[in-house]
Amino acid sequence: MKKRILALLMAAAMMFALAACGNQSNDTSDPPSDNSQAVEPDDSATPGGDTEPTKTGTLKIGLLVHQTGWFAGVDTPNYNEFHAMIDYINDDLGGWTVGDTTYTLEPVAVDGQSDDTAVTSAALSLVDAGVDFVVETNDFWVASCADIFEEEGIMHTSAYCVLAPGYITPEHTMAFTGSNGTGGDYATAFAALNKYYPDVKSVILANDDNGLKEEMLGLMQKYAEPYGIEVKGMVIYPGTTTDYTPYAQQLVDSGADAFLGNGSPDAYGALLKAVRALGSDMVCACAQGKTAPTLMEYAGADACYNAFTLGPSTREADKEQNTDILNALVAKVAEKYGAENAATFDGAAANCLYIMLQLMQKCGSVDPAVVAAEWEKGGQVETIYGTGTIGGEETYGVANHAVGSPRSVSIIDPEAEEGWYFAEWIPTEVP
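^ that's the sequence the OP posted. Answer follows.
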C-alpha cells in the first residue's frame, strides 16, 4: 500500500516538473525577427479600401511642375495643391490603403524652370529618385519627356492636356491626363454657352501658341454643331507676349458673339481686358478650371462682365455643392498656403494624384503597369470634383487615357454678390 502511494506521488511530481519545463520554454522563446517588427498592423480606414490593411509602406509620387520661370504662375497652385493632397492623405486619413498595405505618400518635387532643357533634366532626376508615378505640368512641356518615362515604366499624367503632339499616343501606354483636356473643356463650354448665353450664335477660339492647334478646329465645330453655334476660326497669341491689343483686335474684328479658350489665366485675363478696352461686349468663355476670382484678378473686375469660368467655387456659401474631398483640400491649402490661395483653388495636379490613388485601390496594386491597365478599362472613377468618366478616343486617338471631371460653372455678374455667382456642376465626358 505504501509502495502504491509512493508511486503515485512520484508520478505526480514528474508531471509537475514537465509542466514547469513547458512553461519555462514559452517564457524564453526567441523575439520576433526584424522583418516581422517592420510590418505593423494598421486598422486605419481609408476610403475605397476593401481589404483590412496588415502592412505599412512608403509610396513615392513625383511632381514635375514649374516652380520658377514664366509658367510658374500656372504651376504654383499645382505645386501647393498637390502637397496639400499629400498632407491630407498622410495626416488626416492616416495614409492610403491599397490591398493589405497602408502607404505613406512621399512627394518628390522637381522644378521644370519653364525651360525645355530643364524639364528633361527634371524628368531624369525623377527616374533617379526611383518614382513609379509622376504628376506633370501641361502636356506641351512634358511631351519630350514621355519617352523617358515610357522606357522606365513610369506612369505619368498631365495636369492640363492641350493635345500636344507626342504626348498621348498609341506608343505611350503610360501617358494619361487627369484633366478634362482641351476636348472635354471645350465641349462643356459650348453646353454652358447654350444654356446661359442663348444669344451666342458664333464663337472664335483664342489660345496661346503652346496650346490649341489647327487640328482642334474640326473637333470644336463638332462640339458646337448640336447647339447651332458657328466656329469662326482661331486667334493664336505668343505665350510670352505682354501686348494683347493686336490679338484682342482680331477677336473683335471677327464679328463673333463670343471668344473662348483655355490659355494661362494671367494671359487670358489680359486678353479679356484688352477686348473690353476696345469697346467690345462679346462674351468671354474661359474654358478652364480656374475660379471666377482668378479671372477677375487678372482682367480686373470692371472687364469681367459677360463672362464665365469652369472652375470650382470655394466660397463658404457654395461648400454644400462640392465634394467632401474638394472642401477638405481647400481647407488644407488655406492652412498651409493662406486663404488667398484657397480662394483660387484649381486642383488639377491634386486631381491627377487622386485619380491614380483611386485606381490603385480599384486594382489592388501599386505596380504602375497594373494601374495603367486599370485606367484603360474605362468606365467611371471618383475625382475631387465628383464622379468622372474615362474616355478620350475621339480627342486623342487613344481610348481611355483621359478623365472627364464635372465642371463648375461660375457666372461673372457685376450685380451679384462679390461680382459672380455659382451656377451648377456639369458632368463632363472627354470625347
